[in-house]
């Protein structure tokens, strides 16, 4: 066949392969949009592990009627306008491709009422249709029947329980980063998490439990433009899996080899190889010092000065664990 341009719809379905791996990836994108919109109350409803339906309602700034069709276009965003913006991006999103990708592999609608608008509007992705709607404020994104039109992808979905567990992980990651936002998660009509807005500590307690906080040290260190804060477990609270490890860079949950290594090293003398520490740590640095545009789902980042970050995280944790008295302190011999 001769070289030819692909139709938009197919381009979006191909792109969806990168952004929308499973229901949890949809939830991540939609939740991050709600955060970027300045929401204070967010309600998440899932059906059948998110495969049948993901519905997220927020009370954020909303989308004006004439921008609703654009929200569904690829490379359309309200968050950056230049390379300069990209290099110091402060929002979770900026690629302008999530909604287009999700719309290409599901039945999606957006209902939204922009601040100051007389009423809400609803747009259906396919067929594209804009109509007046009822909504007091904010935005409701409704994603139904994920992969209904891409059977090859649908085959890779796991059981309802597994897909829900992935969605729950995403929900917890966002919830830990944003204690200032009230969040609720329901699955098949039953509330599974209800989190009022509150302090960082209260949010950590709600999600990781009293046991974790009782056996954790509060971490707080600053050096130059780097700051890390949060909680890290003492050896008494180690786990057999990595299920309680949360690391954020400028509010974004990331999985980073360098950081994981620095943390491992800090625990090396006090924790057995088969045990894993639990932690919720927030690294803050000048946005210029980190590239978040490495991966479509943005779970990987690249540090400009990775050595400095490694040393900083290592020393901050090492010091905290060493000065924590009893067990940890003596085990470190300090
Ligand atoms: P990105 O987040 O990278 O900009 P998306 O495809 O996720 O791209 O969203 C496209 C645009 O739609 C956003 O830039 C934003 O203007 C708008 N948008 C999406 N979700 C919301 C929301 N919940 N509230 C307000 N605006 C939203
Ligand atoms: Mg987005």
Short description:
With 334 residues, this protein is of the alpha+beta class. 34% of the residues lie in helices and 25% in strands.
Structure description:
Keywords: DNA damage, DNA repair, Endonuclease, Hydrolase, Nuclease. GO terms for molecular function: ATP binding; ATP hydrolysis activity; ATP-dependent DNA damage sensor activity; endonuclease activity; mismatched DNA binding. This protein is of the alpha+beta class. 34% of the residues lie in helices and 25% in strands. It has eleven helices and 15 strands. The strands form three sheets. Strands 5-4-3-6-2-1-7-8 form an eight-stranded mixed beta sheet, covered by helices on one side. It has a five-stranded mixed beta sheet with strand order 9-10-13-11-12, with helices on both faces. Helix 1 crosses helix 5 and helix 7 crosses helix 8. The radius of gyration is 21 Å and the shape is globular. The N and C termini lie far apart (70 Å). Bound molecules: adenosine-5'-diphosphate and magnesium ion. Adenosine-5'-diphosphate binds at residues 29, 33-34, 37, 58, 60-63, 71, 77-79, 93-99, 139.
């Amino acid at each position: 066949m001769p070289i030819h341009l692909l139709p938009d719809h197919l381009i979006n379905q191909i792109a969806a392969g990168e952004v929308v791996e499973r229901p949890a990836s949809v939830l991540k994108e939609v939740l991050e949009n709600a955060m970027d919109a300045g929401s204070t109350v967010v309600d998440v409803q899932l059906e059948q592990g998110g495969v049948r339906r993901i519905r997220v309602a927020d009370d954020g700034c909303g989308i004006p009627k004439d921008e609703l069709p654009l929200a569904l276009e690829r490379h359309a965003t309200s968050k950056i306008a230049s390379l300069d913006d990209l290099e110091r991006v402060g929002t979770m999103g900026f690629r302008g491709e999530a909604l287009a990708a999700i719309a290409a592999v599901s039945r999606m609608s957006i209902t939204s009422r922009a601040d100051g608008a007389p009423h809400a509007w609803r747009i259906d992705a396919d067929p594209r249709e804009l109509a007046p709607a009822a909504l007091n404020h904010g935005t409701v994104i409704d994603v139904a029947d994920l992969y209904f039109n891409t059977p090859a992808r649908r085959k890779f979905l796991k059981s309802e329980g597994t897909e829900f567990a992935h969605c729950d992980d995403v929900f917890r990651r966002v919830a830990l980063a944003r204690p200032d936002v009230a969040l609720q998660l329901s699955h098949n009509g039953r509330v599974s998490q209800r989190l009022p807005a509150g302090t960082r500590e209260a949010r950590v307690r709600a999600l990781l439990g009293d046991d974790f906080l009782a056996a954790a040290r509060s971490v707080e260190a600053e050096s130059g433009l780097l700051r890390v804060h949060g909680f890290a477990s003492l050896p008494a609270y180690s786990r057999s899996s990595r299920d309680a490890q949360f690391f954020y860079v400028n509010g974004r949950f990331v999985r980073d080899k360098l950081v994981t290594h620095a943390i491992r090293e800090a625990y090396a003398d006090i924790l057995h190889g088969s045990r894993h520490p639990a932690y919720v740590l927030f690294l803050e640095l000048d946005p210029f010092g980190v590239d978040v545009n490495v991966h479509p789902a943005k779970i990987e980042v690249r540090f400009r000065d990775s050595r400095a970050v490694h040393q900083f995280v290592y020393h901050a944790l090492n010091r905290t664990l060493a000065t924590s008295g009893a067990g940890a302190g003596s085990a470190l011999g300090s």
